[in-house]
Amino acid sequence: MDAEAYDRWYETPYGRWVGQREVALLLEELAPRPGETVLDVGCGTGFFTRALAAATGGPVTGVDLDTDWLAYARRRSAAGVTYEAADARSLPYGPASFDLVVSITALCFIEEERAAVGELLRVARRRVAIGLLNRRSLLWLQKGRRGGRNGYRGARWHTVREAAGLLAGLHAGRTRVRTALHLPGGGRLARAMDRLWPRWLHTGAFILLVADLPGAAAASSGGDE
Q: Between the CA of residue 110 and those of 75, 95, 114, what are the distances in Å?
């Protein structure tokens, strides 16, 4: 799938709901403060990069190894957004360079995912959020088996326990896991159930793994929430 086709999927009725739901969950857990700096690792077409810039009003940087997708992202760039070519496993930034660091489903296509997670934590100052695909979901049964179909081809799907295990032994403070998109399709039932689904029942296709950096809350003058 090329960059334009990928981004155009988010303009379909189903894709629009998926994008809105993932962005809403991401912003809820990140709780960005006005003007905070954000790094989007594996930004692809910049869909989430643009959403983060609109929500924070601060400088947002998107990085990716695919120069064609970066070129597309730059053409659709918004104010305050910059894009750079970089490898998630070796980010060209110093420790605690960004207040918030996110990576949405990019790690599903990186073999050395633990190295990438370590880099996300290294360059973050306050909070990290990592989006993954849930192997214990209905979407996996539809699109993820036998190597995956369409945009999911070649993707790695995690259980919630495996996702949480990516942070084991790394420099992370308080952590939590949320899931969303429990029923495929995006119809009325799927939308209603996503609002009503118990938080502890982690069956959503989208896993969001969130980690606060140790000492981040103590260093804040106003608290996280």
A: 26, 22, 9
Q: How many residues does the chain have?
A: 225
How does pLDDT run across 1-25, given as a tens digit for each residue?
789 998 999 999 999 999 999 999 9
State how far the Cα of 174 lies from the Cα of 159, in Å rounded to an integer: 20
Structure confidence by residue, pLDDT tens digits, 31-68: 999 889 999 999 999 999 999 999 888 899 999 999 99
Which superfamily does 3-213 belong to? Vaccinia Virus protein VP39 (3.40.50.150)
Per-domain boundaries in the chain? 3-213
CB atoms within 10 A of CB 45: 25
Estimate the crossing angle of helix 13-30 against helix 47-56, to 10 degrees.
50
| Whole-prediction pTM | 0.92
